[in-house]
Amino acid sequence: MSELNELYQDTILEHNKNPRNFRDIEDADKTADGRNPLCGDALRVYLKMDNDVVSDVAFKGSGCAISKASASMMTQAVKGKNREEAEQLFDEFHKMVTGELDIEAEDNHLGKLRVFAGVLEFPARVKCASLSWHTFHAALNDEAEISTE
Ligand code: ZN
Question: What's the pLDDT tens digit per position in 91-119?
Fold first, then answer.
């Protein structure tokens, strides 16, 4: 494994151990439940909206290290973003993990989220990495639940 991959793995393990925004939001404006039956990941995403801006975002649930770390970093990435910016990140993340976006060659706003580019090599893990993003997208669009199957 290359040093770069080890660095990426450390980031994922660290977020799994200490997930950010791992809580519920009692007066959430939007929530959605996401399930990845293939791996057993299940999480709920909570959103607090200030007009068009995601003013707070949190998640709860259980799952593998990749799904939890991805949810943790998703909350950090979309907090404070407006709907359009957040949807663009969702789109870019989805394209990165499915191989439709070349993060080195094409413009993107993924930043730290690039640590998940490696899941492309592990098809079973793509759904783990993208679950929190699909669930966030569902909440934002007032869909109560999603399943990756
Ligand atoms: Zn998983």
Answer: 999 999 999 999 999 999 999 999 999 88
Beta-carbon count within 10 A of 90 CB = 19
Residue 68 alpha carbon to ligand 1 centre in Å: 8
Asked if residue 149 is part of any domain, the answer here is no
Q: Ligand 1 centroid to 54 CA: how many Å?
A: 26
Tally of domains within the chain: 1
**pTM given for the model:** 0.94
Ligand 1 centroid vs 126 CA: distance in angstroms?
A: 9
Does any domain span residue 122? yes
Measure 51 CA to ligand 1 centroid, in angstroms. 33
**Torsion from C-alpha of 22, 25, 29, 30, nearest 10 degrees:** 40
Is residue 148 situated within a structural domain?
Answer: no
Tokens at residue 56, please? 């707070």
